[in-house]
Amino acid sequence: MTDSPATRGIDPALLHRAAARFADRFPGPAPRMTVAPGRVNLIGEHTDYNDGFVLPMAIGRAAVVVFRPRADRVLRGHSVAYDETREVRLDALTPPGGHDWLSYVAGVAWAFADEGLATTGLDVVVDGDVPIGAGLSSSAALELATARAMAAATGLAWDPVRMARLGQKAENRYVGMNCGIMDQFASAACEGGKALLLDCRSLATRPAPLPETAAVVVMDTGARRSLAGSAYNDRRAACERVVAELARRHAGVRALRDVTSAQLEAARSGLDPVDFRRASHVVPENRRPVEMAEALAAGDLVRAGRLMNDSHASLRDLYEVSCEELDAMTDLARQQPSCFGARMTGAGFGGCAVALVDAASVGAFCDAVLAGYRARIELPAALYPCRPEAGARLVD
Ligand code: ADP
Ligand code: MG
Q: What is the pTM of this model?
């Protein structure tokens, strides 16, 4: 079970723990198992709602669903993380559900039915090692592992793009979280060894191979900030005001995606100075994922790292969504000779940063950055070295 392509990159202890819990709680015929990864966004921050590009990569930390169909229409779930068993009736699911762990599972079942797809009762154990609420998208991982399980149990052919949309629908409508499509897309559709360039307007994708000589290190600052929500709404509103002004000047401008740096500069006097600064982050950032995908494909890690550093400076100084911990972590990363570049990732004000590192030196890099961070900041930081893993998989 542990050395097949389907489980590559996944901690074997996690798979064993989930399988053992299933055997303990739901004894009977052998179950099946799915895994779906969390993700980290390499570049393209606050670009999704501006119709721009993002460059996520699936990581080796994943949600696991162990499942066996039932003869009735009951969905009975056990969570290892919450040590809790609960059940719902499939035919009684109506949005909105709750925000608890079972709602992510039930929400996917609801979304299947809402899309006119067959559903079946299931016994499921859910487990995972994506840190919850750290910005690595444990929720999308759980949704896609559940979707993979429901598809396998009902004989539905796996369609990653359709299932990414279905996972997003479950989270938007059933759980009631207004997330974009990137997390579900990465968890559904990534290929091993490759990041995924995603056009948030057309949903077109292009795989971007990460050179074998490079590792990605996810760096959790341990900081969790609550002001992220209101700041996020402020930033979105600023972008919309700039689009309204630019659309008056140029036909065809629907989003900051459609605006060039020269057009933005020419409109400067008609814009609020803070709004101008926000847009001055988004316009170049919208193109950085395309440039970084090209740099990675060309094996140019120096250029890829420089783009990450530029992105961080822009998020810190122009979009103003970084914080002391993210700046400290990325500074420490850049001080290591093995580091090509580092930036905050996710909405900001805490959570994770990401670094591009020489794969041969990744152990020394992690030791030095973690020691430096702990000497300065008393928070439970954690570093996760990663290679790009594949999207949701059935383990048979
Ligand atoms: P994240 O940034 O990690 O996606 P969210 O708040 O969007 O954070 O989603 C976290 C929620 O997803 C958890 O509160 C829990 O309900 C559910 N969840 C994620 N992973 C698991 C897991 N392994 N087991 C049970 N529930 C999980
Ligand atoms: Mg989430």
A: 0.95
Counting from 1 in the atom list of ligand 1, the atom nearest the Cα of 64 is: 23
Nearest-CA residue for atom 17 of ligand 1: 101
Task: Kindly tell me if the per-residue pLDDT of 2 is higher than 80.
Answer: no
Q: Is residue 286 exposed (0-12), middle (13-18) or buried (19+ Cβ within 10 Å)?
A: buried
> What local confidence, expressed as pLDDT, does residue 109 receive?
98
User: What mean pLDDT do residues 253-279 have?
Assistant: 98
Please give the pLDDT value at position 261.
98
pLDDT at 336: 98
Q: Which of 48, 127, 129, 183 is catalytic?
A: 183
Q: Nearest residue CA, atom 26 of ligand 1? A: 101
Task: Give the residue with greater pLDDT, 122 vs 178.
Answer: 122
Out of 17, 105, 132, mutate this one to test ligand 1's pocket (max ligand atoms within 8 Å of CB): namely: 132
**Is 123 one of the catalytic residues?**
no
Q: How far apart are CA 140 and CA 114, in angstroms?
A: 19
Torsion of CA 99, 101, 104, 106, to 10 degrees: -100
For residues 357 and 335, what is the distance between their CA atoms, to the nearest angstrom? Answer: 12
